[in-house]
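Colleagues,

For the teaching module next term, I've prepared a clean inverse folding example: a structure given as tokens, and then the sequence designed for it. I'd like students to try predicting residues themselves before seeing the answer, so please don't circulate the second half yet.
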């Protein structure tokens, strides 16, 4: 059972802690008022927001979270082994007491007497009823906020009032309805850098009108949580500046046909794709193998994924490939040997994986392999060609590597216990 609300003395102490924060961390604390109360937020959600909004590295944004936690302004709840050095933050939850969320919102409200002039603006729509400040003014309503948060309930019909949002750089949409059409006024957000869409309903919401995101010149990050989308539609949005796409617990409908789009040109800035808990993902769309700018590909907890694309070898700039907890993955393509810049491979929890590909020995930059709970996986003799390799495994897989130790230069084997953490259920 969680602790009760903090005492008055504790609240005052933490408010003093807020006043002592540096400017950057204070801004991040105020941003957290954009999320719904009584919610546990995946750390990656906040990191995506801050990285896109403030142009900071992921690890710096993680440091901001740790600083806020050290001042008792939020709580960090690990789901797994709490490993952040490899840039994976999906196994960490963030919980903020409602009273501090309200404090953050009140601090934002003090910035300007005029609602429309505030730097951060929360728009709460209940039963299709917009607040009066949206209705009593000449249309379109002009919003000057840089961070706009819009919350709607499960009865929202996606009928929007007209708005002009020329200065919005970050958009957070909190929704609960089974169908949700993005508002057309997103197309006016020419400064938009990051979009976070979080569905709080029981089932994935069907997202429509994604075309309003098309051709936004500064859009760097898109994060969708519990949404139903067609991956085929992503390249058609002409997102030339997009750097990261994150999908969490999404239902992905796939149209298996070729795109008549120049993917390397259309997604020329895309460096990272993160797909987590997308339970119906059977295979990746072909267009992903054409994103030659990609540096990180993370497909985790996707239990229906059976294999990777043969064309994955075209991702010549790929540095990190994470496939952890894809329990139905039974093989990796030999074309992985063409990933000449790959330094990190994670197949932990892929207990159906039969073997590592023979061509893995060609990956001269490979420095780290994580393969806990891969006791069925055979290792090819070509791994002898790998140098300065660090392997993380459990008791069931450590013996696979021990026999190679005499022949491999500077092989380090770290044995760790396998964890099966079910704390993700805390989110529901």
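(Answer key — instructors only)
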């Amino acid at each position: 059972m969680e602790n009760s609300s903090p005492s008055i003395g504790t609240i005052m102490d933490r408010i003093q802690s807020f006043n002592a924060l540096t400017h950057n961390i204070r801004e991040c604390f105020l941003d957290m008022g954009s999320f719904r109360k009584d919610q546990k937020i995946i750390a990656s959600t906040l990191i995506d927001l801050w990285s896109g909004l403030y142009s900071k590295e992921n690890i710096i944004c993680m440091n901001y979270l740790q600083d806020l936690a050290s001042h008792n302004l939020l709580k960090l709840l690990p789901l797994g082994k709490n490993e952040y050095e490899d840039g994976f933050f999906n196994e960490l939850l963030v919980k903020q007491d409602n009273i501090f969320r309200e404090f953050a919102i009140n601090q934002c409200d003090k910035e300007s007497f005029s609602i429309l002039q505030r730097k951060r603006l929360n728009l709460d729509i209940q039963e299709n009823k917009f607040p009066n400040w949206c209705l009593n003014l000449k249309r379109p309503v002009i919003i000057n906020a840089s961070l706009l948060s819009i919350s709607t309930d499960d009865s929202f019909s996606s009928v929007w009032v007209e708005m002009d949002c020329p200065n919005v750089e970050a958009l957070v949409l909190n929704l609960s309805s089974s169908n949700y059409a993005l508002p057309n006024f997103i197309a006016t957000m020419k400064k938009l850098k990051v979009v976070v869409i979080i569905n709080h309903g029981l089932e994935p919401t069907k997202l429509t009108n994604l075309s309003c995101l098309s051709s936004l010149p500064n859009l760097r990050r898109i994060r969708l949580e519990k949404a139903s989308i067609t991956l085929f539609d992503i390249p058609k949005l002409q997102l030339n500046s997009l750097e990261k796409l994150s999908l969490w617990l999404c239902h992905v409908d796939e149209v298996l046909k070729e795109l008549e789009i120049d993917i390397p040109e259309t997604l020329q800035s895309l460096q990272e794709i993160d797909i987590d808990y997308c339970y119906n993902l059977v295979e990746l769309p072909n267009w992903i193998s054409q994103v030659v700018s990609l540096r990180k590909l993370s497909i985790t907890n996707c239990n229906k994924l059976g294999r990777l694309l043969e064309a994955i070898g075209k991702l010549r700039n790929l540095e990190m490939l994470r496939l952890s907890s894809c329990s139905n993955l039974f093989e990796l393509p030999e074309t992985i040997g063409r990933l000449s810049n790959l330094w990190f491979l994670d197949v932990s929890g892929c207990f159906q994986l039969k073997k590592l590909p023979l061509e893995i020995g060609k990956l001269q930059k490979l420095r780290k392999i994580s393969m806990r709970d891969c006791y069925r996986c055979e290792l090819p003799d070509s791994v002898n060609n790998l140098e300065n390799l660090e392997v993380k495994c459990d008791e069931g897989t450590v013996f696979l590597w021990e026999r190679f130790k005499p022949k491999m230069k500077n092989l380090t084997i770290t044995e760790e216990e396998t964890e099966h953490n079910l704390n993700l259920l805390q989110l529901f």
